Structure formats: structure tokens, C-alpha cells
User: What shape does this take?
Amino acid sequence: SHPGHEFCAAAGGDAAGCGGGGDGTRILIKGGTVVNAHRAEAADVYIEDGVVLAVRPNIPVGDDNVRVIDATGKYVMPGGIDPHTHLAMEFMGTVTIDDFFSGHAAALAGGTTMHIDFVIPVNGNLTAGLESYKQKAASSAMDYGFHMAITKWDDEVAREMEVMVKEHGINSFKFFMAYKGSLMVTDDLLLEGLKKCKSLGALAMVHAENGDAVAEGQQRMIDLGITGPEGHALSRPPILEGEATARAIRLAKFINTPLYVVHVMSIDAMEEIAKAKREGQKVIGEPVVSGLVLDDSLLWDPDFTIASKYVMSPPIREAGHGKALQAALSSGILQLVGTDHCTFNSTQKAFGSDDFRKIPNGVNGIEERMHIVWDSMVETGKISVTDYVRVTSTECAKIFNIYPRKGAILEGSDADIIILNPERRFVMGAHAHHSRSNTNVYEGRKGKGMVEVTISRGRVVWEDGVLNITPGSGRYVRMPPFGHVFDGIEKSDAAYRSSLRAPVQRGKAAA
Ligand code: URP
Ligand code: ZN
Ligand code: ZN
Ligand code: ZN
Assistant: This one.
């Protein structure tokens, strides 16, 4: 690939004329079970120039220039798409340890071939934020997209949002209802943001915790002399997540625009999403791996290095929440799994050794997500293999409007593919991971089902435990506005307006 390749899509519309970085490589994956969200079938997959050209049984090998990979007894699936990461993010006085190279190494080794990262504006300025993230992403080794955070409000921000959507391929904006004094927004900003998102066809996302109450809760813990990592969990209980989730849902309903709730960590928040969905509201809930499988007990570990690893927001909850979130995921109340990969090493975590409020918030997961969801959800019979593909890849591609180029193995899809061996076992931990961190919140975790091969846009980048990746080979994926989550919004607005004009008839119709 050529210099500046990651923005080929930005320059050329939809990567037209860029060849997808496949370098003429031809691969035939034979004998596996090809799994898409809509069905699993015995089929071969033929890839050329970074694109899937054929999916059917018994594709003949053809000529010598085709590399044949035997997938007998294995699952051939779309590469994972992580909807929620923070690579090279400046946060809480430091910068996450994984950048767009080490983060991509970790992702690819774990079967994730695309992620969507959050651009943080610079002093509230969106253009400066995007420039900064373009620089950060210059070392990328796989495809990525951007969401953008909104941290202040004025006419310029509103104008820039339009530019981001129309010119820069961003179709989602995140509002932090927590982190008072830094990223937090107030309800009036959230309302303005929801209105603007709606008019642009961009999806509004929220970090849902009541930031004012969190500040109060933190002070309460400090006053009680609780300064260790356990104070983090105690200071921001599930009710504060439930409250903010409910508030964001109601404001989105009032504006009539779809809402995406990131990192749903508690039963309280999940129940608000379930209730809104039951009432027909377009709300998407994203659990993250840490929330699904960890519990808060380790925040009480007397070893600060261990306890502080688990500090993220909203906090990892008491045992019971994770199981409920898994059940919600298996029944469709929650729709797709992210990680919130936001990694700090033990030296960075130690900034808060005498005050939990200074522990940089965040956990790893970009490398572990695909394996943990397989082991904890498919191996235990909670979801099918097709649902696995849906929650780890397809749903994300659909929500962010890049399906079926991403999130599927269909003719014409990008050749982002993994081969998973359901019989192989794994042990996770810092000894084996590709993150730059010296710690791992899944240290020692064992399970079944291993991604043996990762193919990124037609190139084998992970095989036999070896990575073969190139900095700068990743490509920016533009995400167009007005995805399917916006279907019906105009019609329901029209129905609402006509109901206002005819209150008497409405009363009669009901009778
Ligand atoms: O603790 C977390 N989640 N850190 C990353 C920033 C965020 O809130 O997503
Ligand atoms: Zn290119
Ligand atoms: Zn967040
Ligand atoms: Zn996050």
C-alpha cells in the first residue's frame, strides 16, 4: 500500500481505485463452515485483491498462485468489529498505552479486523480533534472508523458536526454524561446535540452516568477515608447509571432520534433499555466484555496493582450484573459487544495510589473480546454461532451503515475473515498478549475456541501464533449517515405533527 493509504477512502469516495490493499493476493479457504449472521453453511471462500469473490461449496483450486487454507472442522467468520475503543487517547493526565499500532496488533491477534475509535475534540474543536486522530492513526495496521465526542456547544460546533458527517465519514457523536469538569455535558447540551444528530442522520451515543452525583459520591468516599480502588465502585453505584440511561432515553424520545448507550454495565441501565425497546423506541445497548464476565470483587484486592487494573467507568459491578447482561445479549435486549479498550499500565494506574479519583479509568479487551464472547456465550450454549457473528461483527456494521462491505462474508465484501478452531484451548494474560500494557484484566483466564487465522483485507496477518503486519497499512472507513436506525423517523414525526393538529379527531379515533 502507498503512503497515506489509510485515507484513500476519504479521498476517493468508497475506496474506489485503491485495490483494497490486497496486492493481488489470492486465497481459497476450503472445507470450513462459513458463518454469517443470517446463516451458517458448508462452503469455500475465494478471495482476491482484498475482496471476497465467491462463497460456495467445492470451489476448484484453479491455478498455482492461489494459496489454499484448510478450514476443515473450523468456523470461517467475518472478522470482529469493535464498536468502542480508545487508542492513543489523552485522558486523566496521561495517554493510553496502546496506540493505533499496538492496539491493532492486539486486535488482529484476537480476531478483530476493524474498530471504531472515539475522536476527542481539542478544546472542544472538532476539526482539530480529527486532525490529531488522523496523525495518531498513521501507524494503523487494520481498518478503522471514527465516532466523535462532543464536549462543548456553540454555533461553530454545530457547523463542524455537519462537516464531519458530510465530508469526513463520521456518522455518530458521543456525549459524556459523566467526567464532571472535563468531558461531561449538561442536559441542555445533550438536547442540542440530539437535535443536531437527528438533522444530520447521525447516531447519538451516550456514556450514561450522572456526573454530578458521581462527584458527590466520590467526595462521600473520601470523607469516609476510603481512598483505595474499591472507592471507585462505591462512589458511582448502578442507580447513577440507571438514572442517566433513563434520562438520555427520555430525551432521545422527546427529540425522536435513535440512541446508542455505550458500555451498559448494570441491570439498572439494561432494564431502562429493555423498557424503552418494549415501548418501541429505537435504543441500542452495547455491553462490553469486562461488564459481561468480570465482577467487582477484585477492586477489593489488597494489592493496588491488581485492584487498580479493574477501575473503569461505569464500574465493573457486583456478581450478578454480568450474568443478567449476558442474558440480555442473548435475547436481543442488548445488541452488540464492544470492549471500551482503554489501556493504562501499572505505572499509569499508580497515579491514583493514594486517591482512587486519580486512577486512569479503563481496561483492556480488544484482543480478548472475540475469544471471551465465544467461550462464555457460544461454548455455554447461550447463543448460536450465527448470533455470535451478529453480536461481534454484523450488528456493528449495520448500525454504523457499512454493511455488507463489513460484517459479512458475501461476494463483494471486504476480505476481513477469521478462522476459529472450536477445539483449541486458550490461556489469557500479559505473558501472551500484544497490548503494550504490563497487566491484563483477564490474567489467567482459560477457555475454549481459538482464532487461528486472521485475514485483513485479503492478507493473512495472524497465523500459527505469528503476526505479520505493517504500520500504515490500515485504511479509514467512511461511515455514511442515515443508516437503517433512522428508517421511520420522518414518518413518525409526521404522524406526531398531524396528531397535534387534530386533537378532537384523535379522541374520537380512540373511542
Ligand atoms: O473507563 C473508561 N470507560 N474509560 C474510557 C472512557 C470512557 O468513558 O469510555
Ligand atoms: Zn490505497
Ligand atoms: Zn464512556
Ligand atoms: Zn469508552
Observations:
- The CA atoms of residues 20 and 50 lie 5 Å apart.
- The two ends are 67 Å apart (CA to CA).
